[in-house]
Amino acid sequence: MPKFTSKILLSVLFLVLAGCSAPRGNYVILLPEDDGSVGEVSVRNDAGVQTISSVNTVVEIPSDKAPKKPRELSSDLVAKLVAETEAAQPPKPLSFFFFFGFDSAELTEESNVIFESVLAEIQTRETVDISLIGHTDTIGASDYNKELGLRRAGNLRDKLIESGINASSIDIKSLGEENPLGGDEGQGTNAFNRRVDMVLR
Amino acid sequence: MFLVRKLRTSFLTLASLSLVFAFSSVTQADESAIAYVKVLNGACYVESGGAERILQIGDPLYKDDIVKTRSESSLGVSFRDNTLVSLGSNSSLKLNNFEFDPDNKKLAFAVQLFEGTLLYISGIIAKLTKNPDEDLQITTPAGTISVRGTKMFVRAE
User: Which domain of life is it from (chain A) (predicted)?
Assistant: First the structure.
């Protein structure tokens, strides 16, 4: 009976140690994304491959052998290992939509309000770079729409520059009528396709 | 009369030229920049085209750059596809390849961690790619990691 107990104790001890021992050398740990979802990672070298798809799981990669079998680490240990690096993560990129009237490159009233909130967000960041993609509805020639999309994005860029954003960190292009929201053929004439998509990084 | 006309022509040429220059200097985004420095603590450097210089917040980064952090230093970078990467102290990372042109189906993200630590949060390339094993690679001295849309921590030595 004591033998049996010590066996259990030993295996418990082993499990605890396995979760506690810090990974060594080259390794990768899979982390949960902010929305709680978990992706998948494969690790390969000349000697083999391992795939991990559960949180706080590590694969160590010896330099002359195949990647080791994945093992789970305690969340405390993971938090300790990643702390310094995670603290330097850039702020999350944000997306905004700006809408325009029919055949117009002038921002609507609502879009001007959104513009103000974008400026407020920019103030909270030390540095920004911005992508603008112009879109149109499917009414009219596609060449004309491509140019209209570019004028929409260009006007928004000019407003940003007037507000003190560095021109070299704003990137613009137009997809014209090629990329209607929702992707549905029948939706192309809708007003919500008269827009510029902004990504603020 | 001839002189006046000539003068006027050259003035016009000059005016339109300066307009072109003004226009291009205002509109030219840095097309070849693949990422920008967003967070910086301590001493961080970039080796670009054989020369090394101190990095500052807001600096653009280009393909083939090697970014480095010294002790008690860290760096946060965002790529044009919204991929976020940060490095801990004593780290060295080469930006081997980056292509983000979804309209022409050109997608590539490849970095090489020589030493140190890296925290990666995937961006749009990871969402769009159909061949993550080829298009999305993080290399360490002992093996290559391919990513299918995720957040992860890598250490290399």
Answer: Bacteria
Instruction: Spell out the domains of chain A, with CATH numbers in brackets.
Output: 2-86 (no CATH), 94-200 (3.30.1330.60)
* A167 neighbourhood in chain B, CB within 8 Å: 25-29
Would you write out chain B's pLDDT as a tens digit for each of its 157 residues?
Answer: 444 444 444 444 444 444 444 444 344 567 789 999 999 999 999 999 889 999 999 999 999 999 999 999 999 999 999 999 999 999 999 999 999 998 888 999 999 999 999 999 999 999 999 888 889 999 999 999 998 888 999 999 9
Q: Which of these, A96, A95, A94, A51, lies nearest to A69 by C-alpha position?
A: A51
Q: From the CA of B145, how many Å to the nearest CA of chain A?
A: 4
Instruction: Assess contact for A193 and A135: CB atoms under 8 A.
Output: yes
Angle at B65 between CA B101 and CA B55, to 5 degrees: 115
Closest-CA residue of B relative to A172 is B29
Our CA-based measurement puts residue A25 at a distance from the nearest CA of chain B, in whole angstroms, of 6
Domain boundaries, chain B: 1-30, 35-156
Under 8 Å CB pairs connecting chains A and B tally to 169
